[in-house]
Amino acid sequence: MIDHFGFPVRDYQRSRAFYDLVLAPLGYSVQMEVTREMTGSNAHCGYGEDGRPQFWIGDGEAREGSFHIAFVAKSRKAVEDFHAAALAAGARDNGAPGIRAHYHPNYYAAFVLDPDGHNIEAVCHLPG
User: Fold this and answer.
1) Which of 32, 33, 43, 123 lies at a 20 to 30 A Cα distance from 8?
2) C-alpha–C-alpha distance, residues 103 and 95, integer Å
């Protein structure tokens, strides 16, 4: 249903450094970067895998409020590594790695708040 999504961040370089560290344990990295010189306005970069950027951040005026994003993790260990990397990168804990059985018996997830206060989740749906 969704091809890609993105949003502006308050501090592009800080958020870029944050997502570089946090998404690496999940196997995601910058697949494309578009500079201000290329666009004539805002810079942005897209994260994903296999040459396909699906999650974008960009400089510009950050939106008010917060939102929730859940990234697919290929293992429970990847969820744990995501959570540890996020905390090391300055995120605030918003839910330690663990089962969320109210969603389903194998819903293993962790939640953090990114530099702009957005609720970022890594989730693995596979059995332990």
Assistant:
1) 123
2) 15
pLDDT in tens, 25-76: 999 999 999 998 998 889 999 999 999 999 999 998 877 888 999 999 999 9
The 3-state DSSP class for residue 23 equals helix
CB-based contact 106:125 (threshold 8 Å): yes
Q: What is the arrangement of strands in the sheet containing 52-58, beginning at the earlier edge strand?
A: 5-8, 52-58, 44-49, 29-34
β-strands 68-72, 119-124: how paired?
parallel
Task: Identify the structural domains of the chain with CATH numbers, from first to last.
Answer: 5-124 (3.10.180.10)
Give the integer Cα–Cα distance in Å for 81 and 101.
21
CA distances from 24 to 65, 89, 103, 106 (A): 26, 12, 26, 23
SS3 29: strand
Q: For the segment 81-94, what is each residue's pLDDT rounded down to a tens digit? A: 999 999 999 999 99
Tokens at 86, concatenated: 């996020």
